[in-house]
Amino acid sequence: MAQVNAKLQIQEMKKVFYTEDGRQVRALEEVNLNVHAGELVCLVGPTGCGKTTLLRLVAGLDVPTQGKILLDGQPVAGPGADRGMVFQQYSLFPWRTTLKNVTFGLEIKKQPKSKQVVLARKALAQVGLEKFEKAYPYELSGGMQQRVAIARALVNEPQVLLMDEPYGALDERTRQKLQDVLLALCQDKQKTVLFITHSLDEAVYLSDRVVVLGGMPGKVVGDIPINLPHPRQRVSQAFVEQLLQIRQVIADSTLDGAGMGDDKQHPLPQRALNLSNATPCCFQDVNKPKNVTRRSDSS
Amino acid sequence: MRHELTPTREALGVKRNRIRPKLLSQAGGGRGKTRWHWLVPFLSPLILILLWQVIAVWVDNPFILPRVESVWGVLSNPMGDVLGQGSLLYNIFLSAVRVVLGFLVAVLVGVPIGLWMGAYQTPYRIFFPLIEMLRTICPIAFIPFAMALFRFYTIPNLVGVRYSNTFLDEMLISMLFVLYWGAVFPIVLNTVSGVHGVKKLFVETAQTLGANKSNVFWKVIYPAALPSIMTGLRVGAGVAWMVVIAAEMLPGSDSGIGYLIIYGYQLAQMNVLVAGMICIGLVGFILNKSLYYLSVTVSRWQARER
Predict the structure, then answer these.
(1) Residues in chain A within 8 Å Cβ distance of B206
(2) C-beta separation of A58 from A194 below 8 A
(3) Nearest-CA residue of chain B relative to A105?
(4) How many domains, in total, are found in chain B?
(5) Which of A51, A178, B186, B246 has the fewest CB within 10 Å, making it most exposed?
(6) What is the residue range of B229's domain?
(7) Across residues A86-90, what is the average pLDDT?
């Protein structure tokens, strides 16, 4: 089986939440997804389609109602250091300094103190914060806090890095800077990353593959490889075409009512892209990526 | 390489905030600090003393309101004997030791129980209603019961010694129990609410970094709840200090600052009475402030978090 090679396998996964008054909310249905070693996969899709749920299931913070999650062929049970997570919210421990935040995972592994500090300093240098090791989280800006959170996750050397819209609350410039930081880290270490974002621009810029989730309950409605060479140019023709292709997938999935139809993954839409008509929109996309998903959601 | 990892401008522009002791600067008001601004906190006590003296002279009855100088006569000689009951300082010392002992037991019992009840659902549901009821019983109301229960047992009696001929002979178990009773509930309740206030996000973050239950407890829940625990300690110590004075005034007590006050009243020595009251205020103030600074030191991060 070819699937055995995948680093992370999500098979036939289904997640149902129960509300307090006993109603069922189906968050994910029949999700199949393979992430290969060294791959950076972005998950996109409208709000409420279960992206975060999917990531939390992989992290082991929630338990799937049905289906399996395999890491290196082994089923995951509960949270663990092999799956590092960077949350959307600022999650640094406010009672620890930057350095102590980064050493948290190493302390738990009971590594010697001196080694902890060396590794943590190296990780902080990788995200460009070596000068702030004594600072407390409240002394750092949002972007810096997220960089520390990334360093804290990476210093643990997880098999898979899960990132839940880590740059969601940041401004465009900082966001782009941190995207480059992440790419640099991935190039060096051949990390396997599962990255949630609302920004299609971010997805195309970062990933080897964009997986589109859609519908209620959420399912995979598109799986688009991005074969552009790094470093990618956000304003290049090829980049914009990729962006539009993903938009098309999202639009199509909304039109034929994803989640109601067949369970197979949708093939790539073969529809020809009319670039000349779409150009004004795509520049809007680059600037305000969040609107794209929202609009296609409501249409 | 294109991905340069240098600190950003935004990063370098961040200022380091240091926490300053707020006592004087805050009272001094925001802008325009003069070289006399440190005097401001002393202004209102000074006016009060002045007013007191004016009224005392006007009333002219030392059995109702003693003059400042006669009270000062007692206060200025803290080592001297007061009405044959030992010195002022010794009685303050006895009251303070009682509070510290009762309070320490309350901390040793209250904090672990609070952490336990906060972290687990079952003990919380079992014991919390009981605690909610018990805590409304005023500690003073417990004194007769405690005296009946512990009679005149003192700390040396616990280890089988009748008299140790030290201050420990003054430490009645009944009184310590009442102090414990007063202090333990604020400590438990604040610890519980501190644990309940720990963000789920922090727990989950720790879990994805490989933390097991005991890691989560000691490295996340405990430090995150610490500011709230410290608040509990401050409130608990405050209650204990209030209660010790009242307890010392009741029959069965024969030492301490509260006893000195009631004894002064019985002998119509109003200056002793007022001097005792001032001592209560001063010690309470010092007690609260030192616990406040302790809590700031222990959870430095929290003062700036808000």
Answers:
(1) 104
(2) yes
(3) B209
(4) 1
(5) B246
(6) 67-300
(7) 89
Q: Are A191 and A161 in contact (CB under 8 A)?
A: yes
Contact at 8 Å (CB) between A161 and A192? yes
Give chain B's largest Cα–Cα span: 90
Interatomic CA distance for residues A45 and A56, integer angstroms? 16
Chain A residues whose beta carbon lies within 8 Å of the beta carbon of residue B17 = 138-139
Work out the average pLDDT over A280-291: 39
| Assigned domain for B51 exists | no
Residue B217 vs residues A89, A152, A153, B243: alpha-carbon distances, Å: 21, 19, 20, 34
Considering only CB atoms, A138 lies closest to which of B212, B219, B305, namely B305
Residue B49 domain flag: no
CA distance A267 to A252: 11
Residue B251 lies in a domain: yes
Which CATH number covers residue B84?
A: 1.10.3720.10
> Across the interface, do A95 and B204 touch by the CB < 8 Å criterion?
no
Going along chain A from its start, the domains and CATH numbers come out as 2-93+158-298 (3.40.50.300)
Q: Band of the pLDDT at B25, cuts 50, 70, 90?
A: low
Give the closest-approach CA distance of A180 to chain B in angstroms: 6
Q: B9 — contact with chain A (CB < 8 Å)?
A: no
Residue A163 pLDDT = 92
Q: Does B28 touch chain A (CB under 8 A)?
A: no
- ipTM reported for the complex surpasses 0.85: no
B43 domain-assigned:
no
Of B6, B11, B301, the CB nearest to A138: B301
Copy the structure tokens of residue B8.
């950003």
Cβ-Cβ contacts under 8 Å for A144 (sequence gap 6 or more): A129, A132, B10, B11, B14
Q: What distance, in Å, lies between the first and last C-alpha atoms of chain B? A: 40
Nearest to B3 among A109, A130, A181 (CB): A181
Give the DSSP per-residue string, A139-202.
GS-HHHHHHHHHHHHHTT--SEEEEESTTTTS-HHHHHHHHHHHHHHHHHHT-EEEEE-S-HHH
Output the CA angle B211-B224-B288, nearest 5 degrees. 150
